[in-house]
Amino acid sequence: MECAFVGCGAVARKYAATVDASALSVTAVCDLDADRAAAFAADHDAAAYTDLDAMLDAEAVPLVLNLTGHDAHAAVTERALRAGRHVWSEKPLAVDADRARKLVALAERRGLALGCAPINADCEAQRHAGRALADGRLGTVRLAYAHAHVGRVTAWHDDPDAFLRVGPLYDGAVYPLTLLVAWFGPVERVRVADATDPWPDREAKRPARPSHVEATLAFADGPLVRLTASFYAPHRSREFTSLELHGDDGSLYLDDAGDLGGEAGHRVAFGREGRGYAPMPIQKPSRRTPYLAGPERLAASVRRGRPDRASARRASHVVAVCNAVERADEAGTSVAVTDAGVDRPDRQRVAWCGAEEAPHPPDAALRLPPVGFGCSRYRGDEYVDRRDSIATALDAGYRLLDSAELYGNEARIGELLAAPGTPDRDALFLASKVWNTNHGHVAEACETTLDELGVDALDCYLLHWPDAWEYTGPLRRLAELPVAKQEARTFPEDDDGERATADVSLEEAWRGLETLHDRGLAASLGVCNVDRATLSRVVEFARVPPAVVQVEHHPYRPQRDLVSWCHERGIRVVAHSPLSAPGLLDDAAVRETAAEMGVSPAAAVVAWNVDRGVVPIPSSTDSDHVVENLAAAGYRLTDADRERLATLEDPEFGR
After folding, report:
1. Where are the transmembrane segments (predicted)?
2. CB atoms within 10 A of CB 51
3. Last residue of a domain, one of 221, 247, 280
4. Domain-located, residue 313
5. Inside any domain, residue 315
6. Which residues of 594-628 are buried (b: 16+ CB within 10 A; e: fewer)?
7. Burial code of 274-296, b = ≥16 C-beta within 10 A, e = fewer?
8. Strand ranges (DSSP E) for 490-566?
9. Which of 230, 347, 363, 648 has its CA 20 to 30 A from that of 12?
10. DSSP 598
11. Residues 515 and 579 occupy one common structural domain
12. In whole angstroms, what is the distance from residue 260 CA to residue 242 CA?
């Protein structure tokens, strides 16, 4: 779609940076500075104007990008709308709520699209934080802190005058406010506000509006928010445009509400009641959302025949909130925000971060998170308590938990699942495995697991091994038994000290799993520790085919034949023990790959699994490693990395 840029300053250059790769083309530009307009036009082979009306008369472009100074936005937008053009405006939409509302009404009457920055609600870190809100772990959010420390614009901007005229509310506060309104709907009232004028005496230019504003906002159906907007507090201070949400069950921290993404680092963190913040890594390659994304979406809505005005309505409400803050400060009293224009959004559908972007079989039976968390109690030759590490995993954002009755800690996991701060059940993928001694008693085993986990059904129930051993009774709360009793119950021996087996065929055991699936106790079925021949046999006799196969999988043992066979049939492969092969993390090829990727050897191996469309389930008791393993889903290997690690395959590998 052809478009015109009105305003050719610093922000216009940011919008134009990706225009060549977009569906938009710049055919005209307008700026009061003739030289600047001519230079910008030359860069884009566009016509240059210094008069807006002359451009609108001469050019038939359907879309105008209003990238002028803050206090010029409303006038330019109105002229473009009256000329029959769709408009994308930089923030704010206006500095007067009544005028902002009239702009939206004008666009509606004329059937035109009207959009407004910021686009932060659609950027990666903000969407990641939104998923944390959607999965229910914060509980009811009752309090929030929002900062907008814009800093001394006279020091960091080459043309600060427009900033100084409108003040920090209309330039900086719009970022956290836009996000809060997107999440919680309209602000109902400004309870209290205070505006002051701290400013260095040495500065020749001063803000025309208060340089520092603090207010308390009450959302109609959301939290009480303490808002701070400042031109005085440095923009590189600890809090730039941060948000911190506090709910009944946990807290969420976002360090930059205006961030467009594309930079490394943890920008989102969650802390449940009584625990510190755990970083929540984004489980896909970080990508910057271009400034032009907003206008591109607006143009797409026009092409679909449904001109969009949602972001403009939200922007209009944000202006109304800023106006109410100013009135509350002037009057020294509470002020209602009467111009809503937006509704409380519906609850966001729970979606696993990275699940869409991670490599996976094209016809996969299941969509899974890119990395899961193994809940086994075994660490070398020891049994360890996993409650703390599993809690950290949930806080960091793991959404696939791999358990088993053999691990003996499903009751403890169940306590965590029921505790405040844990995601809602529909946000999790819970897998468990029936142990070898229960192949003839899979219903009893599954019901015990469900009871201990405190859930109605599993997302996947698997045979831990294809072999059947002698029944030793229900394996309930094994972790509470002495180790010797645990071993006797799970590894039975006959009178000769050999493994005591049971006459239960693999097909019989699978029929038991299918009955559980029929009863709704297991949404999908799977099998672990099988070769391709055994798996092929299961697929042949199964009425409910396996959706998941869990095997040992790492560069020493890539199981290429099995993995490709599964992927051809839409069967998901889950990798247990992805990091524990002796010598793997010290291998020169792994270390070289890790160095090339800028990650640890463990993270490189996790990323290798994800790269192959396999879901690794690493297990760790170190909180830093727990987070690091999850973050590895955000890295991708190069062809050179793949070739280097392919040399590690060892057909003779065994434990």
Report:
1. none
2. 11
3. 280
4. no
5. no
6. beebebbbbbbbbbbbbbbbbbbbbbbeebebbbb
7. eeebbbbbbbbebeebbbbbbbb
8. 525-528, 548-552
9. 230
10. T
11. yes
12. 13
Domain shared by 470 and 591, yes or no? yes
Q: Do residues 487 and 601 share a domain?
A: yes
Query: Confidence band (pLDDT; 50, 70, 90) for 274?
Result: confident
- Look-up of token digits 């900033």: 163
- Name the phi and psi angles at 128, rounded to 5: -65, -45
Kind plus residue range of the DSSP H or E element containing 230: strand 224-230
The Cα–Cα gap between 462 and 258 comes to 44
> What CATH number has the domain bearing residue 161?
3.30.360.10
In a shared domain, residues 132 and 107: no
In whole angstroms, what separates CA 292 from the centre of its chain? 21
Establish whether 49 is a catalytic residue: no
* Cα gap 524→583, rounded to integer Å: 35
pLDDT, tens digit, 9 for 90 and up, residues 617-638:
999 999 999 999 999 999 999 9
Per residue in 305-343, pLDDT tens? 999 999 999 999 999 999 999 999 999 999 999 877 887
**Burial state string for 219-242 with b = 16 or more CB within 10 A and e = fewer than 16:** beebbebbbbbbbbbebeeebbbb
CB atoms within 10 A of CB 174: 30
Strands 25-30 and 2-6: parallel
Q: Could you read off the pLDDT of 166-224 as tens digits, one per residue?
A: 999 999 999 999 999 999 999 999 999 999 999 999 988 999 999 999 999 999 999 99
**Catalytic-role residue among 15, 175, 291, 407:** 407
For residues 543 and 434, state if they share a domain.
Answer: yes
- Range in 7-11, 145-149, 260-264, 373-377 the model is least confident about: 260-264
182 lies in the same domain as 258: yes
Q: Which residue has the tokens 């869990």?
A: 550
- State the CATH number of the domain containing residue 624: 3.20.20.100
Question: In this predicted model, what pLDDT tens digit does every residue of 445-459 receive, in sequence order?
Answer: 999 999 999 999 999
Q: What is the CA radius of gyration of the chain?
A: 29
Amino acid at 238: R
Given a cut of 80, is residue 2 above it in pLDDT? yes
Instruction: Give the integer Cα–Cα distance in Å for 199 and 370.
Output: 49
- Residue-wise pLDDT tens digits, 405-416: 999 999 999 999
C-alpha 557/C-alpha 571 separation (Å) is 19
Same domain, 591 and 545: yes
Q: Which of 89-93, 262-266, 533-537, 585-589 has the lowest mean pLDDT?
A: 262-266
The strand pair at 47-49 and 25-30 is best described as: parallel
Q: What is the mean pLDDT of the chain?
A: 94
In total, how many domains does the chain have?
3
Three-state secondary-structure class, residue 487: helix
Structure tokens at 108: 């509606």
Q: What is the pTM of this model?
A: 0.93
Binned at pLDDT 50, 70 and 90, residue 381 comes out as low
List the structure tokens of 333.
């009293």
pLDDT digits (tens, 9 = 90+) for 416-446: 999 999 999 999 999 999 999 999 999 999 9
Is residue 101 located within the same domain as residue 147? no
Which residues, at least 6 apart from 68, have a Cβ–Cβ distance to it below 8 Å? 6, 7, 76, 90
Instruction: Indicate which CATH number applies to the domain containing 96.
Output: 3.40.50.720
Neighbours of 462 (CB within 10 A): 26
Residue 634 lies in a domain: yes
- Rounded CA-CA distance 613/445 in Å is 30
Q: Which domain holds residue 167?
A: 121-280
Is 334 inside any structural domain?
no
For the segment 592-604, the average pLDDT, to the nearest whole number, is 96
Cα torsion 6, 7, 10, 13: sign: positive
Q: What pLDDT is attached to residue 266?
A: 57
